[in-house]
Amino acid sequence: MDDDGANDGDSGAAAHPLAREQAHLTASRAALRAMREDVEALDIRDVTANWVNAIVLQAQIDDRIKALADLAHTPLFFGRLNYLHAPGAELAEGAEGEQFYIGRRHVHDADGDPMVIDWRAPVSQPFYRASKNDPQDIALRRRFGYTGGELTAYEDEHLSDPSEAAAVSKLLQQEIERPRVGPMRDIVATIQPEQDEIVRSGLSGSVCVQGGPGTGKTAVGLHRVAYLLYAHRERLARTGTLVIGPNRSFLHYIEQVLPALGELEVKQATVEDLVARDGLEIRGADTAATAVVKGDARMAEVLRRAVRSHVTPPAEPLMVVRGSRRWRVPAYELEEIVAELQDRDIRYGAARDALPQRIAHTVLVRMEQAGEAPDDRVQDAVARSAAVKAAVKAMWPAVEPAKLVLRLLSDARFLAEHAAGVLSEEEQALLLWAKPFRSVKSAKWSAADLVLIDEAADLVERTHSLGHVVLDEAQDLSPMQYRAVGRRCTTGSATVLGDLAQGTTPWATRSWDEALSHLGKAEAVLEELTAGFRVPREVIAYASRLLPSISPGLAPVSSVRETPGSLVVAPAVEPSELTAAVVGACRDSLRHEGSIGLIAADARVPELARALEEAGMAYLSPGEETTAFSRLTLVPASLAKGLEYDYVVLDEPAAIVSGEPDERTGLRRLYVCLTRAVSGLTLLHADPLPAELV
Ligand SMILES: Nc1ncnc2c1ncn2[C@@H]1O[C@H](COP(=O)(O)OP(=O)(O)OP(=O)(O)O)[C@@H](O)[C@H]1O
Q1: Where is the UvrD-like helicase ATP-binding domain (predicted)?
Q2: Range of lowest pLDDT (83-92, 147-156, 513-522, 678-687)
Q3: What pLDDT, in 10s, does the model give residues 543-561?
């Protein structure tokens, strides 16, 4: 057999393929070390003009050194491709094939020849996409297996050999099934073809991915950012990228993935972070009914009208005095200027800034007509004169966004004036505070209020737009929140990830078309992921019983994990015995390798926390990293979304359902909780299980 035929064997013989691959790994590591040493040896004393430059340059060098680190437990390369012909070369008869090792980052030798190719490079793409049906000029695809940082196995596919049957890769399966501990990790070695298409889709277009639990949406979103930064590094360094997730614990859970891929610059935030304003804290909460109205896209029209209502046509002519002369601009001319600015598609604040010069220009025209020869300085002086300033203030006063929203929520007449024909009287009543607040500072703003203020702020002054935004768990956003995210990528593109069946807010997304239009990305391409990488087949089948009630029409996930015995539904116990039974189930689960999540209705969490403490079992909060000391996390149902654990113990499903304002939301919350397990789910209950599950 040749180089590519044999599989495992002893690495003693230098000629053995495995030994040769190990030697390439050793050489690549040495080359990476040399690259790092080159950077470390840079002496910037002579090239920087001042200390600011020096600090900036040194920071860049430090980042580069960090990026060149060789992490002992992350394989430097995980695959190899042998092309039939040299890629890019004319596919002429006799053109030579080439061989590439695919890894997390580019490594070259002292001559600059590549030893490892970045997974994001175009030549790496067939590693993810080529198949027997479409070999993409690949003769051999080799996957490497590692044990504790050592290269110990490999597996070959001869994609262009018609005599070899297509087979499921064992190494791939093992990698997918590796137990989970700690934060989320990257999936560069095993990105699937349908995922890769999303990861590598172009920067100019937006993509929306509908996918059931565990289909890799979050993973795909993060790898897409890494890919875009590789393919469009300069542009995105200028314009910026952002990943938006539902809450802090989720962001903690995913925050390691991009740095592990060498990308340190990507910001992560919640929607609340985006709309946060200095000096305004969230101290209030809305009822569901009020929050629904505040999150409705029609609020944008109410705000638009309210902002524009500040423009008042002039009642009197304007008189500007210069030296011994007085210049008069009649009211109708001022009105024309105002009308012209109102018709233009510019922000309220920008129009206000333009107004003094417009008025001054009119005065200048008059001066010229009278035979004077005023220059730009005269125009500036007129624009800055007290008379013009006063006129501008009267016609186009400054609008403070928070004050405007304060007034809308406190002043029934002001609200009615701008909501007439847009919101019903009942809806207006829901918006008004029972006891109005006096000032922006003392008001108990809710999360939805800050989104309204953000919308108002954008009417006054254009929000800064980024180059690319990834929006995860999008299904929970209100239309007004979609707008808030959308204005942060007006000039860029977006990747929207979500699952309609996991929407647990009263305003949850009903259709992606609708959501994308609120986001301002109606042209986004809708993709669907259906292969599940997290939840074992038995467990996802059980959870999918809820689908007809929570999201009719959505196809169930088909799991790639065959784990017999992964689902245990314990018989009902007496209510007084439930907590003890749950603690016992946690103890049993801890006998397995990996992380354990105890998920319970929020209201049950304090009691379970006490019981765990009494039993002497240490536990973590969601998003906290598992340690040698504790692998058990106590998860309130409201924070379970997006997270995963090897083994999940699920406490009292009926309480999770009844913990939500309505039954559909309750069942959706339960669906989220049922789909967090990678290897096993144990369900304990005293109350009857929801009928939909039985
Ligand atoms: N191609 C893959 N190879 C290996 N593991 C994968 C692959 N795709 C996804 N996974 C793993 O499957 C798990 C679920 O992925 P992820 O959290 O991205 O799913 P999701 O669709 O966002 O789920 P949810 O809807 O529950 O938030 C993660 O552990 C992820 O690393």
Answers
A1: 190-545
A2: 83-92
A3: 999 999 999 989 999 998 8
Residue whose token pair is 């245990």:
568
Work out the number of other CB atoms within 10 angstroms of the CB of residue 583. Answer: 18
The DSSP-derived string for 434-497 is SS--SSTTTS-B-HHHHHHHHHHHHHHSPPP--SEEEE-SGGG--HHHHHHHHTTSSSSEEEEE
Nearest to 672 by CA among 538, 451, 501, 539: 501
H helices present in 232-270, as ranges: 233-239, 248-254, 257-260
Tracing tokens 């701008």 back to the chain, one arrives at: 418
Find the DSSP H helices in 50-104: 51-67
What's the whole-model pTM score?
0.91
Across the chain, mean pLDDT equals 91
Residue 149 counted as an annotated binding residue: no
Q: How many CB atoms lie within 10 A of CB 339?
A: 11
Q: How is the chain split into domains, by residue range?
A: 17-167, 196-279+464-532, 319-329+350-395, 537-693
Query: Pick from 568, 617, 597, 608: which is nearest to 678 by CA?
Result: 597
| ipTM for the whole predicted complex goes beyond 0.95 | yes
Are 542 and 680 in contact by the 8 Å Cβ rule? The answer is no
Whether 279 has a binding-site annotation, put simply, is: no
Which residues, 6+ apart, have CB-to-CB distance to 44 below 8 Å?
54, 57, 58, 61
Distance (Å) from CA 624 to ligand 1 centroid: 19
Query: Do the two domains 196-279+464-532 and 537-693 of this chain adopt the same fold?
Result: yes
Q: Residue with the nearest Cα to atom 29 of ligand 1?
A: 534
Residue with the nearest Cα to atom 9 of ligand 1?
A: 216
Helix, strand and coil content of the chain, in percent to the nearest 5, comes to: 45, 15, 40
Please identify which residue in the block is written with the tokens 């598992």. 626
CATH fold of the domain at 196-279+464-532? Rossmann fold (3.40.50)
Strand partners, 320: 327
Q: Topology of 537-693 in CATH?
A: Rossmann fold (3.40.50)
Residue 37's CB is within 10 A of a number of other CB atoms, namely 11
464-481: buried (b, 16+ CB within 10 Å) or exposed (e) per residue?
eebbbbbbbbbbbbbbbb
pLDDT digits (tens, 9 = 90+) for 450-483: 999 999 999 999 999 999 999 999 999 999 999 9
What is the three-class DSSP state of 80? strand
Helix axes 412-419, 298-308, angle to 10 degrees: 110
Handedness of CA 368, 370, 374, 379 (dihedral sign): negative
| Ligand 1 shell residues, CB under 6 Å | 176, 187, 190-192, 195, 211, 213-219, 499, 502, 533-534, 642, 644, 675
What is the CA(169)–ligand 1 centre distance, in A? 18
- Which residue has a Cα nearest atom 26 of ligand 1? 213
